[in-house]
C-alpha cells in the first residue's frame, strides 16, 4: 500500500476517534460537553406562577455512584407532580471532566429539569473550571412558585478558610424583599456544622437567614447521611440529604408557606 495512503488512513482514524479518549485529567471540556446546564434547565422550569404547591427532589454526592444515579432517575421519573431536582454538590470524586459528563448524561434522562450547586470534590484539580463551564455560576438564584432558591458555594476549606466563602454580602443582597417572593430557601453543599465550613462565618451565615422574613430552610449534602438540625434559636431547619450511593433522597414540599421533608429510598 502506498505510504501516503497508509498515513492518511492512520490520521483519519485518529481524528475520527478524537473524542473517545480522555487525554488528561486537566481537560475541562470536549466537543460533547454540555454547557450552562443550570441556565438551560431553568428556562425549561419557568417560574411556576400558578403553582400552589412546590414539590422537588433534593439529592447529592453522586460521585462514584453511576449505577445508583441511573436507578435514581428511574425512581424520580415514576413519581408524579415533581417540579424539579436539586443536586447539592459533589457530582464528582476527583473533579474530572468525564466524571461530570457521566453524571450529567444520566441526569439528562430525568423527566423534569435539574439544577446543581458545586461541592468540595467538584473543586479538585480543574473541577471548578469544569463545573463553571458545564453548569454555570457558583452562586446563583431563581424563583419558582413564590419561593426564591438561593444556591451558593459553601466549600470553605477549598479556599483555605479565607473568610470569604460563603459570600455573606452576596447572600444578604439575594435575600432582600422581592416582589412576587413570599418564601426563601438556601441550597449549598457543606452545612455550617461541618468542619469544612469556615467557623468564623457560621454566626453571620445563620444570622442572615434568621433575619430574613419567610426563610424556610437551608438545604445541604456532603456528610453522606441524613441530618436535621437547628443551629440557633430561629427555629429554621437545616437539612442534609443522604448520598446518592445510599440510595436515598429527600422529597421536599412547600404548601401554604410551610415546608416538609420525606426521606425516600430507591
From TrEMBL:
Domain of life of the native organism: Bacteria
Coiled coil: none
Listed PROSITE patterns: PROKAR_LIPOPROTEIN
InterPro entries per the UniProt record, alphabetical: Calcineurin-like_PHP (IPR004843), Metallo-depent_PP-like (IPR029052), STPP_CPPED1 (IPR051918)
Residue ranges of domain Calcineurin-like phosphoesterase in the record: 55-226
Protein name: Metallophosphoesterase
Annotated organism of origin: Pedobacter gandavensis
